[in-house]
Structure formats: C-alpha cells, structure tokens
C-alpha cells in the first residue's frame, strides 16, 4: 500500500488536495493500493472520494487538530499496518514537525518516504521577509530535512535540478488533473472578450498590474472587454486603486467581482470566459519553484490563458497556438497581450481553446506522468 499524507483539506478544500487526489488516481491506475490521510472536514470513519479511500484527522478543537496531528497520524498508520504492508509514503505539504516525525516512522518500519515538493517561498512574499515563520520553515525543510534517504517529487525543473544536484532522487511531475472529469467544453464565441481571474493574489499574482494594464486600453477596445474577478470583493478591488481612483473609475464598469466562491462555482464561471489571466514575477524564487494549478484547471475546461511563462510553462505552451504569451511581467506587456486577445476573431478563439484542451489531455492527465511515479516508488 502507498499512503498519501498531508495537512491539506482533502478531498476538495484546496489546490494541494487536487494534487494529492490525482497522484492517488494515477497510482491506483498503476495497480497500487492507495490511502489518503489529510485534514479535511471532521469524520469518524474512512470515506471514499471518487474511488479513493481517505480519512481526515481533524477534530473539533482546532489546536488539537494541529498539535496532536502526529499522535493521531501514528495511530492511523499503526491501524493500517495491521492490515496492509505499507511500502511507500508520499508526504505533501505539512509542518516541519510532521516531516521529522514521518522520517522517524519510515526509518523505524523501513518505509520509503517520498516528499512531494510544490513550493519554495521568496522573502518578498512576507511582511517580515526572511524572518517570517513560513519562510524559515520552508528553508529548513528544503535545505535540511529532505535528505538522500528520501526521494522527491518535484513540481518544477527548478526544484528537480536543486534536489538532483544534492544527490537526492527526484522526478519532475507538474500539476495535472483527471481530464475525464472535464469533457471537451465548447461554446459560442463573439467579438466580446470575457476574461477571468480566480484566486487570492496576495504578493504572488500581479492582479494590480493586469487591472492597470486594462485601464490603459483605448475606449473602443475597452468597450469589448469584461473582466471577471473571483476571490475579491468590489471593495477589495477598489482598494488596489486607492492611490489613483481615476484609473479605477475608467474600468469599474468592465469589472465584475464575485468574492469567494466554492470550487464548483469557480469552474462554472471559468467555462464562461474566453481567457483566464495570470501574471507573476519572472525573477522571484516562488514563481520558478512552483507550478500554477489555475493554468491547468483553466485549459482543462478549454479556456486558454493570457500569461507570462514562469516556472516550466514555456516547455508546454506556445504563443497564439494554445495561449497568449505576455512577454514579461510589466503593465505595458500585459496591455499588448490584451490588444492581441481582443483582436481575435471568434474562430481564432475557438481554435486556441481546442488547442489548449488538447494540450491538457496530452500533457496534464492522470496517465501523463505514470512512468515518473513508477521510477520513484519502492516495489
């Protein structure tokens, strides 16, 4: 049996849960017995999510959920060891004490520990920069806790190169999804351009840059564009322009803000768009080390992306074939990309959508990285 363990809100609470689930699906398709342990909604018994057995270790008291996680994890592993031979544990994002605990457990019971590494923060993301606890914890984990006794699933080439150079076994597996859940979705295209951004930008996504680029478009083009924003309220968007409300007044009629929505509702809104949008730093480590889940979710529902090529996106995407490339992370270049997009005919948009979905089925499906997983698990 292979255990997939994390402190994600499995099965559908966050992007990490989606990754854990799809790794489990691939392993199951390979003939492996799998079991997922996470921190989703409170449950007393084992449940199943789309054929994958799982259990949540969350309890009513949030402090017990966090600080007694290792205790409940040990009990769950002991329970499973009575019925199954556990040969591999894949550990997703978790606090460093969980990583240390599982290193001990795996050493004691001769279980192969595989760390799924999906991020490496930049100091610029945090108020206290290099002294922020999440930053320090990730530094300790990636530099010290992950050793040659373990193996790594690296979400990007940046991470794969780093761990390989340290002599640690690594395979590169980006974000992927079960494309059977997203049948080819076609719609009627018009000369209007519908854009969508979904997420919590923080200091990761350059939403302010994208909106300010929108404001620089001439009035005749601006009339053709609707920009849907999920994850922020109208008041939060207005706050972006607090230093120059005249810019906001120019585009406020183009923007529809929906606040936070359930994942299923986000997907439905996504399907209505011609393009999703994403802009990130091309220099910061967080963008090089990660891989944007929202890009793969978008192309899975046949919605191409207007984006700059961070992480490994340039290995897969081609400008004007299955996306619109933004040449860098500046306002001017995003404005140029918007002009490209708004000039497309309905036929052009349909072709890009079809090509984006084809790429998703080919390179970001549950079968796409089975060979990599085969290489890293212990038989």
Task: Name its key features.
379 residues, alpha/beta, 6-stranded parallel sheet, 16 helices, globular
In which range does the helix fraction lie? 40-55%
Radius of gyration: 22 Å
Order the strands across the largest sheet as they lie in space.
3-4-2-1-5-6-7-8
Mean pLDDT across every amino acid position:
95
Low-confidence stretches are none
Multimer state: single chain
Q: Would you report the number of β strands?
A: 14
Termini, distance in Å?
Answer: 10 Å
Query: Could you give a short account of the major beta sheet?
Result: 8 strands, mixed
Helix count from the secondary structure assignment: 16
Report on this structure.
The protein is an alpha/beta fold and 379 residues long. It has helices spanning 15-29, 62-67, 69-81, 96-109, 133-145, 157-165, 207-215, 219-222, 234-240, 245-251, 263-271, 285-289, 293-300, 331-342, 346-363, 370-376, and strands at 2-5, 34-38, 47-49, 52-56, 88-91, 112-117, 151-154, 169-172, 193-198, 225-230, 255-259, 275-278, 305-307, 323-325. The strands form two sheets. Strands 3-4-2-1-5-6-7-8 form an eight-stranded mixed sheet, with helices on both faces. A six-stranded parallel sheet has the order 11-10-9-12-13-14, with helices on both faces. The longest helix is centred in the last third of the chain and has 18 residues, at 346-363. The radius of gyration is 22 Å and the shape is globular. The termini are close together.
């Amino acid at each position: 049996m292979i255990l997939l363990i994390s402190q994600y809100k499995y099965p559908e609470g966050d992007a990490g849960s989606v990754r854990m689930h799809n790794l489990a699906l691939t392993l199951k398709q390979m003939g492996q017995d799998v079991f997922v342990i996470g921190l989703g909604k409170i449950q007393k018994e084992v449940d199943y999510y789309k054929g994958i057995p799982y259990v949540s270790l969350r309890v009513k008291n949030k402090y017990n959920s966090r600080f007694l996680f290792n205790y409940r994890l040990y009990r769950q592993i002991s329970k499973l060891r009575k019925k199954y031979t556990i040969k591999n544990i894949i550990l997703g994002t978790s606090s460093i004490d969980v990583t240390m605990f599982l290193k001990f457990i795996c050493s004691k019971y001769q279980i192969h520990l595989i760390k799924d590494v999906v991020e490496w923060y930049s100091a610029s993301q945090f108020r206290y920069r290099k002294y922020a606890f999440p930053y320090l914890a990730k530094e300790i984990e990636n530099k010290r806790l992950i050793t040659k006794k373990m193996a790594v699933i690296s979400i990007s080439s940046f991470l794969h190169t780093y761990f390989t150079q340290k002599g640690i076994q690594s395979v590169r597996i980006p974000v992927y999804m079960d494309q059977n859940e997203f049948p080819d979705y076609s719609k009627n295209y018009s000369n209007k351009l519908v854009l969508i951004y979904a997420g919590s930008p923080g200091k990761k996504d350059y939403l302010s840059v994208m909106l300010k680029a929108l404001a620089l478009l001439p009035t005749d083009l601006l009339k053709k564009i609707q920009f849907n924003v999920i994850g922020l309220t109208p008041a939060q968007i207005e706050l972006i322009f607090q230093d120059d409300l005249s810019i906001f007044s120019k585009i406020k009629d183009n923007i529809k803000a929906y606040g936070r929505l359930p994942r299923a509702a986000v997907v439905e809104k996504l399907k209505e768009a011609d393009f999703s949008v994403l802009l990130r730093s091309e220099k910061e480590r967080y963008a090089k080390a990660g891989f944007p889940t929202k890009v793969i979710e978008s192309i899975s529902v046949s919605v191409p992306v207007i984006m700059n090529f961070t992480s490994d996106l340039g290995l897969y995407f081609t400008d004007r074939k299955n996306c619109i490339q933004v040449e860098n992370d500046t306002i001017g270049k995003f404005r140029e990309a918007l002009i490209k997009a708004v000039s497309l005919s309905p036929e052009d948009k349909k072709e890009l959508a079809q090509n984006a979905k084809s790429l998703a089925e080919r390179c970001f499906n549950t079968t796409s990285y089975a060979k990599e997983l085969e290489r890293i698990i212990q038989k």
